[in-house]
């Protein structure tokens, strides 16, 4: 059986209590050892203990032979939560997922392992056990959503191998995480860009231009080179920009003509403006000594985000939601502008999205822009 929580060790077997932080009341529940189902026994401690003792006597008295006892006792060969998690992560590593995705899965699985007890048989975990864990993250909806998704996938692994009878995680309630980050409007982009042009780090404005005309992520903007080398993931060749997107582990590849552009800029024109007297392989590079950086050194994706945030704050752009727009929102703005200019299919292609559904999410302005009504 699953080790009892410290607060339940003084109670009769199969009786559990839980404090509702919202009301301050303690509720008692009884878990039927035969079926695994949980029944509420109210808030009266004395009555709950009495009822639990009576239920235990009745249920265990009905088990008259070792054969029947074996039916209601978890089988010794049942896999533990920890063993199922290990199998689940091993399978996940064969799917070709991005490093960040695997890292998040490991974080989620560690939380599940701790909360549900690694040595506990997976078939002993109840819906209530998983629900209690998820409810503890109600104030962090994104994390709750991610954790529930992982739990559902974990039980799919258990079901596939016959280690659990049902997917208890799938029986918990879902939540819709509130979108907190604001979209970036073209008007706000222009305000931020005007500030960026005056900053000593000239690469901030250049990176904003390149992100807008190419519709690529910060990681790919950071990796863009003037010509292809052996280790290159993004480079200029002939009259095209070649991008092997890092997030897709270089599986998504796009070629964009240099004469394509929006907002009065072309990709080729922006890249030309990035060329300086500094000898460097990187299109977006440091233009001065700054901290430990030297002129010509590559700008990391994190630095691109921080540089944009600096310009955004100086421009006084707060955003319509809880979190102001980030550098990544330039990609969303670019996709929306390309969609308006060339259509949804073109926008999907330049973004490197495999399906239209993903592009439509980026194309959602989240209230950041007015809808232009056009006649005809």
Can you walk through the features of this model?
The protein is of the alpha+beta class and 376 residues long. The protein has three domains: 6-72, Double Stranded RNA Binding Domain; 81-171, Orthogonal Bundle (DNA polymerase, domain 1); 186-363, hpI Integrase, Chain A (Orthogonal Bundle), CATH 1.10.443. It has 14 helices and seven strands. It has a four-stranded mixed β-sheet. Strand 6 and strand 7 form a beta hairpin. Helix 8 crosses helix 11 (301-315).
Short description:
The protein has 376 residues and is of the alpha+beta class. The protein is 44% helix and 9% strand.
Per-chain topology:
Layout (H helix, E strand, L loop, with lengths): L14 E6 L4 E7 L6 E3 L4 H17 L4 H7 L8 H12 L6 H18 L10 H9 L5 H20 L25 H11 L6 H12 L3 H6 E2 L8 E4 L2 E5 L8 E5 L9 H8 L26 H15 L13 H14 L1 H8 L4 H8 L13
Parallel strand pairs: 4-5
Antiparallel strand pairs: 1-2, 2-3, 5-6, 6-7
């Amino acid at each position: 059986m699953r080790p009892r929580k410290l607060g339940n060790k003084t109670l009769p077997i199969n009786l559990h209590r839980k404090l509702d932080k919202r009301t301050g009341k303690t509720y008692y529940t009884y878990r039927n050892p035969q079926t695994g189902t949980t029944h509420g026994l109210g808030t009266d401690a004395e009555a709950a203990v009495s009822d639990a003792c009576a239920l235990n006597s009745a249920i265990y008295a009905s088990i008259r032979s070792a054969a029947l006892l074996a039916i209601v006792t978890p089988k010794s060969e049942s896999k533990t939560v920890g063993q199922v998690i290990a199998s689940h992560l091993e399978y996940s590593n064969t799917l070709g997922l991005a490093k960040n995705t695997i890292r998040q899965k490991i974080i989620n699985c560690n939380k599940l392992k701790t909360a549900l007890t690694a040595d506990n048989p997976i078939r002993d975990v109840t819906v209530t056990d998983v629900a209690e864990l998820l409810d503890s993250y109600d104030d962090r909806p994104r994390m709750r959503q991610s954790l529930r998704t992982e739990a559902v996938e974990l039980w799919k692994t258990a079901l596939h191998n016959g280690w659990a009878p049902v997917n208890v995680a799938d029986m918990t309630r879902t939540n819709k995480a509130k979108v907190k980050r604001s979209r970036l409007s073209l008007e706000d982009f222009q305000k931020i860009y005007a500030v960026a042009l005056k900053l000593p780090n000239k690469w901030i404005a250049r990176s904003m231009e390149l992100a807008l005309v190419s519709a690529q992520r910060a990681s790919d903007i950071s990796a863009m080179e003037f010509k292809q080398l052996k280790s290159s993931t993004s480079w200029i060749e002939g009259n095209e920009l070649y991008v092997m997107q890092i997030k897709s582990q270089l599986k998504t590849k796009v070629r964009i003509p240099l004469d394509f552009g929006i907002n009065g800029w072309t990709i080729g024109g922006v890249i030309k403006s990035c060329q300086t007297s500094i000898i460097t392989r990187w299109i977006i590079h440091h233009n001065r000594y700054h901290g430990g950086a030297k002129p010509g050194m590559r700008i990391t994706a994190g630095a691109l985000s921080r540089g944009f945030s600096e310009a955004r704050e100086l421009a006084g752009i707060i955003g319509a939601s809880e979190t102001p727009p980030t550098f990544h929102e330039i990609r969303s703005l670019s996709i929306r502008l390309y969609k308006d200019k060339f259509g949804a299919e073109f926008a999907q292609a330049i973004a490197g999205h495999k399906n239209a559904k993903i592009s439509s999410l980026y194309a959602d302005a989240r209230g950041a822009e007015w809808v232009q009504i056009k006649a005809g």
